[in-house]
Amino acid sequence: MTLSRQLMFCGLIILLFLFVGMITFVVKNTQAFLDQQLASHSQDTATALGLTLTVTMKNNDLVTAGRIIDAIWDRGYYKSIEVDSENGAPLIERQQEVKVYDVPAWFIGYLHLKTDKREAIIMDGWRKVGFVKVESNPGFAYQQIWLTFKDSVAWFLVTALMAMILGGTLLYIILRPLRAITQQAFAICNQQFSIQQILPWTIDLRQVVEAMNNMSRRLKAFFEEQSALSEQFREQSYKDPVTQLGNRRYFDLQFDYLIKDEEKGTGGALLLIELLDFKTYNEKYGYEAGDKLLQNTAQMLIEQCAPFENAIVSHIKGADFAIILPNKTKEISQELATIICRNFSAFLQKGLSKTQNVGNIGVTLFESTKSKKEIISQTDMALRKAQSFGANGYYFLENFQPQVVYGAQEWVAIFDDVIKNNKIVLYFQEVQLWELPESKRLYETLMRIRLSDNEIINAGVFMPTAESLNQILALDKLVIKGVIAIIRQIKYDYQFTVNVSPTFLEDEGFKYWLLEQAKSLKHKSHCLILELPEYGIIHRLEKARDFFHQFTALGCKTSIDHYGKNFTSFSYLYNLKINYLKIDGGFTKQIEEHEENQFFVRSLVDIARSLDIQVIAEAVETQAEYLTLQQLKVDGVQGYFVHKPTELDI
Questions:
Q1: What would the pLDDT profile of 303-313 be if each residue is shown by its tens digit?
Q2: For an engineered disulfide with 565, which of 312, 471, 584, 598 has Cβ 3.0 to 4.6 Å away?
Q3: Following DSSP, what letter does each residue of 136-201 receive, concatenated?
Q4: Which residues of 207-242 are buried (b: 16+ CB within 10 A; e: fewer)?
Q5: Can you list the alpha helix ranges (DSSP code H) found in 389-499?
């Protein structure tokens, strides 16, 4: 029960006690007054009859005496009138049964009015000739008291109703700051440090509001300081101070993870970019001009790679840059290289460089079966070849064929067949959460396509093509339907994360369909977890926030994976409504050997805990990584060391 209702309830109880006391006082006083009136009425009537009957009783004229009594009796105010002789023998008697109309029996039983007989002597001079006895009828008195009681109750009800309306309005106004304090407290729990600008006029509440405002300011400053410190250390470790791009350590961290990620990618394209004779440029134009050229190049590369949400752009050393395009084709990498070279040619005209010749690009494709050294060596060969042809050009060196080779039309037919006949195969990789009981497991859903009875390919092979053919959301629908069917069928309280392409945030129809699917799970909605990559959220932050709030309102959960891959502030997590945060696998690879990665993970865990978010480390493949992550207090781990992807036996 809310405080306002409790206060209203207490007020009504007090008002009820006051009414009971008041009505008891009024009724009892009225009863005492009517007792006196009835006694007086009986006595006065007896005295008047005693005087009136003197002559008739003297002459022993009982007929006339009876008529006199009947004249009074017919008015109905008497219960009995009796005339006795001088020796007490009854001469005339009038009796009637007391009937009280419209008064409840319980009320009559509760209030007993005294109606004792009153008498007067009938005298003839100094001689007694008889007695007259009168007893008043209490019926009218009961009716009067009952009317008084009813009027009092009616007035109480009207007063109580008015008190409720007026009191409720006043309580609503008075307690408005208290509701604001409650909302502010919940906001602080969600890391939304709001400040109440309007202070209440009540001194006690004003002090509480001021205390909450001070606490909110201090907590905001604390979390901002903590986030800034973590972000600063991460930037010092992984970001180049001149170009603000990822440095060589960041490039190695991401590339090492990418070529070993068997589930979410089998390869991609690598572009190595080198500015032409950069040492001479610095000596001729000065180091400030050299830094400006690096910054202009970095900005241009960021702009041109913006359409590729998962692209990795790094400044690996002096005049060298690198771009990784995960799961991208030869045509896409060549198109990007062409655009970059075209921008290089325009640098002098735009004032971005002091020379016409800016740099060269070497391009190659890679797959996870090759080592990083082989891939970089091959790309470096392509770069040297490009330099041999002159500045502002690129060279593509092709030295590998993908494992699965299909043309565009073949892929169209494959996707049509898969979607029409639901040839999706679901694999599941268990996520180990330290505090999760055995009866409640967490699985990540992994998609496969069955091409034939003996050929199943993972998502890393076909997702780039599905994206280019706009088939990703259709495939995601099949996965979601499959997972929901499993959740309904399985008897255990297992939870399943489903990776969905972040492009669905642009599709109102898909969002509506997904919310309806989530509603259909009813009491099992907590078993469905929507997982999106960080690089897909940061460019759609408002849309993601709005949808996550709708999705979690249904009882479902949300997760972000590949966290940390982008140099984004921790602050966007504060009101995003997520339950799980998966650290990008690049930070967990050989984490026991990298103190900067350990500091990043530990800082992220501290911040996430304050937001009630559980942190999970991805791509854990060794015992050393597993034990180190345990010491860093992550909430769980996922990877081949813990559990390999398998089909789920339900």
A1: 999 988 889 99
A2: 584
A3: E--HHHHHHHHHHHHHHHHHHHHHHHHHHHHHHHHHHHHTHHHHHHHHHHHHHHTT------SPPS
A4: eebeebbeebeeebeebeeebeebbeebeebbbbee
A5: 408-421, 459-468, 472-489
Q: How many residues does the chain have?
A: 650
Query: Do 51 and 158 form a contact (C-beta atoms < 8 A)?
Result: no
Strand partners, 201: none
d(CA 125, CA 139): 37
DSSP state of 627: H
Residue 622 DSSP code: S
Helix runs in 356-407, H state only: 372-388
Interval 388-444: pLDDT, tens: 888 999 999 976 555 555 767 888 888 999 999 998 999 999 999 988 887 789 999
Q: Is 619 left (phi over 0), alpha (psi -120 to 50) or beta?
A: left
Would the pTM of this model clear 0.90, i.e. be above it?
no
Q: Give dist(CA 390, CA 537) in Å, integer.
A: 40
> Does residue 612 contact residue 592 with C-beta atoms inside 8 Å?
no
The 10s digit of each residue's pLDDT in 356-383 is: 999 999 999 988 778 888 899 999 999 9
CA distance 465 to 470: 9
User: Residue 248: in which H helix or E strand, if any?
Assistant: helix 248-258
Q: Nearest CA to 481 among 447, 532, 434, 437?
A: 447
Number of Cβ atoms within 10 Å of the Cβ of 491: 6
| pLDDT at site 359 | 95
Q: Measured between alpha carbons, how far is residue 530 from residues 314, 499, 561 in Å? A: 30, 6, 10
Q: Rounded CA gap, 367 and 260, in Å?
A: 9
Token representation of residue 108: 């009559």
Q: Which residues contact 40 (CB under 8 A, 6 or more apart)?
A: none
| Amino acid letter, 361 | I
At 596, the amino acid letter reads E
DSSP state of 584: P
Whole-angstrom distance, CA of residue 331 vs CA of residue 335: 6
Q: Report which of 566, 570, 630 is spatially closest to residue 254, judged by C-alpha positions.
A: 566
Q: Quick check: helix, strand or coil at residue 378?
A: helix
